[in-house]
Design goal:
By secondary structure, the chain is mainly beta. It has two domains: about 210 residues, Sandwich (Jelly Rolls), CATH 2.60.120.1440; about 200 residues, Galactose-binding domain-like (Jelly Rolls, Sandwich). It has two helices and 31 strands. The strands form three sheets. It has an 18-stranded mixed β-sheet that branches. Strand 25 and strand 26 form a beta hairpin. The longest helix is centred in the first third of the chain and has 38 residues. It is elongated, with a radius of gyration of 34 Å.
């Protein structure tokens, strides 16, 4: 048989080149198929669409506005015709909210929650307006397009106090709520939690106490339920239920600590020791004096308030100089025949609607009271505390709750809780701890706003002392 012809070297070379190109194109085809498949899977897994159905519900008639994306000015929220109203037949004034919208509240809207943003997943964000309004931008609110893998919401809170109640039991595998408060700080809110975030501006900071660092507070984050993660520059802090974290104007992160707010500034009179005065320019206490009878001579206007250093009330009989505290002292003597009032007052200017607990406490002592009985309507009270408040609205008339602390062997001329005045008869010369839960008080149980506090001595001759003044709100 004839032997098969052996392929020539050129044929072998071209066959190898052909197979090489075939394999290369096949590999490229496989890569393209893989890339297309991966891109398709990535799109399926990560594609996000805006979630519609967010509704802003205004609980008041004025002071709430929306600035939609692309608009230069905000529009006051107004009631729409029934066919366009998101909540027809309800008392709230409602409007739909889309991505990019900015919601604002103004001071005139009133006290307490004046509006609520209700998202499609039943998350609710409540807006306050006092003392300087609030502002929130809904930067994005999106969910995965083809499945329930992820829901994400990014908001930017520029000012004011807001409460976030993040819905639990959502159908998404991952829920990511983030609030940007500026200064490189973001706050992640876990589903099923209840949180409050306050961004303080110069106007809202006017009556706020500085942080322990001496700098004013810029941001406060408190948790009632759930867990909040604060990402601040290079730090991460978790805020558990009942805790509070603050960030001061210098960027220092403080806490977490107990979620409580001290509404009284300089309750231990330290600033009086620094200034040696409480005049009308003081940002804490201010002194005042009032004659209680017509035609009083100048020499009868001799009530005075001073601050002295003495043993603390817990150990009044003996202490070292290092264990002494500052004590505010009201004094009038000379066997006076007509009454005179001297006192100190402080503006609180606080919306307290978020505080189910408001505890007023202070140490008081009565050393001299020449008229034994408390008198009619508290006219002889060597220590009289007055809380001025408004029940629900800025248009409400100011109201007051008084606490009269007096001494003597006689019976009080009024009942324990008569009208606006509550009486406390205390032993002479002994320190007494006034400790009152204002939310248990019939007048202050539902009060949304505390305007001011006054502490004064009323009467003829008196010598009385106070220290450790505190008004603490808790959520």
């Amino acid at each position: 048989m004839a032997q098969a012809a052996r392929p020539q070297p050129e044929q072998v070379y071209y066959q190898r080149v052909a197979w090489t190109w075939l394999l290369v194109f096949f590999a490229l085809f496989c890569v393209l198929v893989a890339v297309a498949g991966y891109a398709g899977w990535q799109y399926y897994a990560t594609a996000m669409n805006p979630v519609e159905g967010a509704v802003l519900r205004s609980h008041v008639n004025a002071g709430v506005s929306i600035q939609p994306r692309g608009r230069l000015v905000a529009e006051s929220i107004e009631r729409l015709p029934p066919e366009r109203d998101p909540c027809p037949g309800e008392l709230d004034i409602c409007a739909t909210v889309a991505e990019g919208s900015v919601i604002r509240t103004k001071t005139e809207a009133g006290y307490g929650p004046v509006a609520s943003l209700v998202l499609a997943d039943r998350t609710q964000i409540d807006f306050w307006a006092h003392p300087a309004g609030a502002e929130l931008a809904l930067v994005s609110y999106r969910a995965t397009a083809w499945h329930n893998g992820r829901l994400e919401a990014l908001m930017r809170q520029n000012a004011g106090y807001l409460r976030y109640d993040i819905a639990a039991g959502q159908p998404y595998d991952q829920v990511d709520y983030v609030v940007d408060v500026g200064g490189g700080t973001r706050i992640r809110l876990m589903p099923g939690g209840s949180y409050s975030i306050s961004v303080l501006t110069d106007a809202s900071r006017a009556v706020s106490a500085p942080a322990v660092t001496g700098e004013p507070i810029r941001v406060e984050v408190a948790t009632r339920a759930g867990s909040a993660i604060i990402e601040h520059r290079e730090n991460t802090v978790e805020v558990q239920p009942g805790q509070l974290v603050q960030i001061d104007a210098a960027g220092a992160l403080l806490g977490p600590g107990e979620a409580r707010w001290e509404l009284i500034r300089d309750g231990g009179f330290e600033q009086y020791a620094d200034q040696n005065r409480y005049d009308q320019t003081s940002k804490t206490w201010r002194k005042y004096a009032l004659p209680n009878a017509p035609g009083m001579a100048p020499e009868e206007h001799n009530g005075r308030f001073t601050v002295v250093r003495s043993c603390r009330p817990e150990t009044p009989d003996f202490c070292t100089p290092d264990d002494q505290v500052l004590i505010g002292q009201f004094r009038r003597d000379g066997l006076q025949t007509r009454p005179f009032t001297v006192g100190i007052e402080q503006t609180i200017d606080a919306d307290v609607s978020e505080f189910p607990s408001l505890r007023l406490s202070m140490w008081v002592r009565v050393l001299t009271q020449t008229v034994q009985l408390a008198g009619v309507a508290g006219s002889e009270c060597p220590v009289m505390v007055r809380i001025t408040y408004k029940p629900t609205s800025p248009t409400d008339q100011e109201a007051s709750r008084y606490f009269c602390i007096y001494t003597g062997s006689g019976e009080v001329s009024n009942s324990e809780d008569a009208g606006e005045i509550r009486y406390r008869q205390v032993p002479q010369f002994q320190w007494y701890r006034l400790n009152v839960e204002l939310r248990d008080d019939a007048l202050l149980r539902q009060a949304r706003y505390i305007q001011s506090i006054r502490i004064e001595a009323r009467g003829h001759d008196y010598l009385s002392e106070v220290t450790g003044i505190s008004l603490i709100g808790r959520q």
